[in-house]
Amino acid sequence: MHRLFWKLFISYWVALILFAGGTLIAASVYLEKTRAQHYADRANRQDAQLQVARQAARDGGLDGLRRWAEENDERELVPLLVLDQNGQDILQREVPKRALQHLRRHQLFPPAPRALALPPPPVVWADSHPYWLVPDFQAASLGRFITRPRVLVVPLLLAALVGALVCGVLARYLAAPIERLRQATIKYAAGDFSHQVGPSLGRRRDEIVDLAYAMDHMAKRLDTLIQSQRALLRDVSHELRSPLARVQAALGLARQRTGDSGKKELDRIEQEADKLSELIGEILSFSRLDTGLSPLANDPFELDQLLKDMIEDARLEADMLGCGIAVGQIDPVQLTGDAALLHSAVENVLRNALRHTAPGTDVEVGLHKECLGYCVIDIRDHGPGIPADKLKEIFEPFVRLDEARSSHNGGSGLGLAIARRAVERHGGEIKAENLPAGGLRMSIHLPCQN
Predict the structure, then answer these.
(1) Considering only CA atoms, which of 62, 132, 137 is closest in space to residue 103?
(2) Which end of the chain has fewer surrounding CB within 10 Å, N or C?
(3) Are residues 369 and 265 in the same domain?
(4) pLDDT per 10-residue tile (average), the chain, 450 residues
(5) Shared-domain flag, residues 132 and 56
(6) Helix, strand, coil percentages in the chain from 3-state DSSP, rounded to 5
(7) How far apart are CA 49 and CA 444, in angstroms?
(8) Is residue 404 part of a domain?
(9) In whole angstroms, what is the distance from residue 296 CA to residue 96 CA?
(10) Claim to verify: residue 315 and residue 225 sit in the same structural domain
């Protein structure tokens, strides 16, 4: 349990240990290097630091040497004590016992005869008095180490490199499977439930792998449920066709035998039978489009002429509903696809607009080309619109919004779902949006030939 937790914990722990170890190593190397620089050249003490100190003493006397000592103390990790003949530091800093013994030994017994003996401290003359430069290694504390930017830059760079390496490995370790999960969810949203994530993660074992296998199981279950739902719709529709045909045949016989005595009741039965037949046809059409089993024609046709013919056919229904159709700009558009299927899709949208526009208003229809090889069919009504949170739901099957429909014009809830599938089969997209001035606009985007 919590395998990912321990991987994260140990990774960050190791990074901190490496950071601390790198800092200690860098500080130790710097101290050793500084110590070696102070004791390296016994023959002449003409290093750059000593030359600067002597030049400061020659130019400014004791005050110049004191200013140089202050600057050196602020800059260097290991301070240089500037001691007079009495062993007092000119900056009144505390002189460690070991540094004082080192000075006294060389004052009493100059010079050191053995090669292994510590070299005498360099001497700087200021105002005719000698001053000895003695390094105070005991003063090289962590506080001085942190406050010296020049000293701190190497450990910081080392820590940044180590941290970047550890974090980079950890980030890739975590991000790679999460990216695969993201790609899988995109495919699931598109309806492809065959993609499996778990086997692609190899022998890795942690919570992310458990999540991947859980998602695989979920996808398999969803695929089974959706296939069952599609099969149920298809099979029920087919099974209803036969008894409905027998009902319509029996209805014809009943009309012949009863004459005018039951005409009103028989007309109502026929009307309901026609509605049921239309609903079954829409269910079968939706099932074929949704499963992709229906073959799609690939013939060239004029979309603008198709739209004009559709508008003329719909004017009669518009007159019956007490509204009109206003034709706007219609650009010539050449399209390749299934003309009958697109005709059915656009007709569903247009009839839906006619049913919901306010009496005495016009449904506005237009067709124009866009850049990047797309054309757009715009159909706008002047009805009540629909709630903003339902704009996408109306393209799902059997969705009916009572607040946007009256009791006498409600459909089966499949017209817009069929339209969406038909447009998507042609590589297009259909959108709905409420307009600020009122009404609903349906936009059908289709790829076309320039």
Answers:
(1) 132
(2) N
(3) no
(4) 67 75 70 60 54 82 85 74 83 80 71 50 77 74 58 65 75 80 83 81 80 87 77 67 75 75 74 73 66 70 92 90 92 89 89 91 92 89 89 79 47 76 88 91 87
(5) yes
(6) 60, 15, 25
(7) 80
(8) yes
(9) 95
(10) no
Closest CA to 55 of 124, 3, 123, 111: 124
Q: Which of 250, 269, 294 is the last residue in one of the domains?
A: 294
Question: Using an 8 Å Cβ cutoff, are 351 and 415 in contact?
Answer: yes
| CA distance to 253, 374, 388, per residue, from 433 (Å) | 49, 19, 8
Note whether 396 and 367 are same-domain residues.
Answer: yes
Instruction: Please tell me whether residues 278 and 332 are part of one structural domain.
Output: no
Is residue 234, in this structure, part of any structural domain at all? yes
Q: What per-residue confidence (pLDDT) applies to 350?
A: 93
Q: Could you list the residue range(s) of the whole structural domain that residue 136 is in?
A: 41-147
Predicted TM-score (pTM) of this structure: 0.47
Q: Token digits for 436? A: 């600020």
What is the layout of strands, in order, in the sheet containing 429-434? 324-330, 362-370, 374-380, 440-447, 429-434
Query: DSSP secondary-structure letter at 423?
Result: H
Q: How far is CA 88 from the centre of its chain?
A: 66
Same domain, 345 and 271: no
CATH of the domain at 51: 3.30.450
Give me the sheet containing 129-135, strands edge to edge: 80-83, 129-135, 123-126
Task: Please state, in angstroms and as integers, the Cα–Cα distance from residue 107 to each residue in 100, 185, 198, 370, following that order.
Answer: 11, 82, 79, 95
Write out pLDDT tens, residues 351-378. 989 989 999 999 999 999 987 788 999 9
Q: What is the pLDDT of residues 136-184, one digit of tens each?
A: 766 666 556 555 555 556 666 776 777 777 777 777 777 788 888 888 8
* Number of helical H runs and strand E runs in the chain: 10, 10
CA distance 314 to 354: 9
Q: Do 334 and 429 sit in the same domain of this protein?
A: yes
Please tell me whether residues 333 and 401 are part of one structural domain: yes
Q: Which run of H or E residues covers position 327? A: strand 324-330
Positions annotated as catalytic residues are 238
Q: Which helix (H) or strand (E) holds 353?
A: helix 339-356
Q: What is the number of structural domains in the chain? A: 3
Q: Does residue 312 belong to any structural domain of this protein?
A: yes
327 has which bridge partners? Answer: 365
Sequence-distant (≥ 6) Cβ neighbours of residue 320 within 8 angstroms: none
- Cis, peptide link before residue 359, omega less than 30° from 0: no
